[in-house]
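Please complete every field before forwarding. Incomplete forms are returned to the sender.

SECTION A: IDENTIFIERS
Entry label: holo-150
Bound molecule: coenzyme A
Molecule representation: SMILES string

SECTION B: INPUTS
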Amino acid sequence: MIIRRAVKEDYISFVEIEKQHTGLPCWSVAAFSKEEENPYSVTLAAEKEGRIVAFLNFHMLRPEVEINLIAVDRNFLRCGIATRLLAKLREYAKKSLCTSVILDVRADNAPALEFYKKEGFRVEGSRPKFYNDNGDALLMRAPVRKENVL
Ligand SMILES: CC(C)(COP(=O)(O)OP(=O)(O)OC[C@H]1O[C@@H](n2cnc3c(N)ncnc32)[C@H](O)[C@@H]1OP(=O)(O)O)[C@@H](O)C(=O)NCCC(=O)NCCS
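SECTION C: PREDICTED COMPLEX
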């Protein structure tokens, strides 16, 4: 599997992966394209044998990196792909002298919460009824350097 910067041709696969999951913001192809205009935005694709199996978008807003969206093809869950994507994010973050990674996640998204906790994220706040369907958000933060994860 390779992790690389996303290109336009990947966006349709990202949208297909989003559709497999509920409760995601669901960016369109146009939304992914728009990110290209943002110099702080990075979108990564995970490609396995020519097939797009996951993506990650984040904004590098030194000293923080903000994760906007991550999703893995349901046929490839629990294969360590999100872990690989986050490791790549950490490489970008270190090079850009960012020190922490932040995100918001639905409070009822148990797989994502487990994943983020394993990656060293801790809850530092909440936003009740943050999402369009009134779902609650948890605000989480992790150090960029994994050796600083307690
Ligand atoms: C959350 C998500 C990105 C994790 O991707 P993944 O590639 O399956 O994660 P990994 O294989 O790297 O998992 C790493 C660890 O996270 C935890 N984890 C991941 N999925 C889990 C689940 N369903 N239940 C419990 N723990 C889970 C485990 O500790 C796992 O390690 P293990 O498999 O050795 O036990 C994936 O479930 C997903 O795409 N969900 C839908 C989209 C989403 O909710 N995105 C987050 C909000 S933007």
